[in-house]
Amino acid sequence: MPHQLEYIKFDQIVRFCLFSYKHGSPVDPAYIGRHLSNNHLIPANANIRKALARAKRGDIVRLKGYLVNVRTKSGSKEAVVWKSSMSRDDTGNGACEVLYVEQLRIGNRLYQ
């Protein structure tokens, strides 16, 4: 798909990753839908958090960690629930992965 990237515009709106493309361009939206992965990353420590901020467009980044569900509370009430997708076949709302990142590699540099 790298040859199609110049024709695709990606937008992140809150927790949703959207894409658009010009009609008639050589883009296969079904292929993109099957291979697009919207990841929400929770750094395990300050070092991982700083490394995530250093990653730039074009970097080869490898993440190691666990898919997690997130529940927060405000007082005695549940405030936020984020469930990680456990499938690569789903699309739309709820298809994102929430990853607790314990290790990060940017190029040849390893962060833990």
Number of strands: 8
Mean pLDDT: 89
Structural class of the helix and strand makeup? mainly beta
State the distance separating the first and last CA atoms.
30 Å
Largest sheet: 4 strands, mixed
Return the domain count: 2
Specify Rg, calculated over alpha carbons: 16 Å
> What is the global morphology?
globular
- Low-confidence segments, given as residue ranges, are none
- The portion of residues forming beta strands comes to 35-45%
Order of helices and strands: EEHEHEEEEE
Report the helical percentage.
10-25%
Q: Number of DSSP helices? A: 2
Question: Would you give an account of this structure?
Answer:
With 112 residues, the chain is mainly beta. The protein is 14% helix and 43% strand. The protein has 2 domains: 1-36, no CATH class; 38-112, no CATH class. Strands 3, 4, 7 and 8 form a 4-stranded mixed sheet that branches. Strands 1-2 form a two-stranded antiparallel ribbon. The protein has a two-stranded antiparallel ribbon with strand order 5-6. Strand 5 and strand 6 (77-82) form a beta hairpin.
Spell out the blueprint of helices and strands.
Elements: E1 8-13, E2 16-21, H1 29-35, E3 39-43, H2 46-54, E4 61-67, E5 70-74, E6 77-82, E7 97-106, E8 109-111
Parallel strand pairs: 3-7
Antiparallel strand pairs: 1-2, 4-7, 5-6, 7-8
Would you summarize the structure shown here?
The protein has 2 helices and 8 strands. By secondary structure, it is mainly β. It folds into 2 domains: 1-36, no CATH class; 38-112, no CATH class.
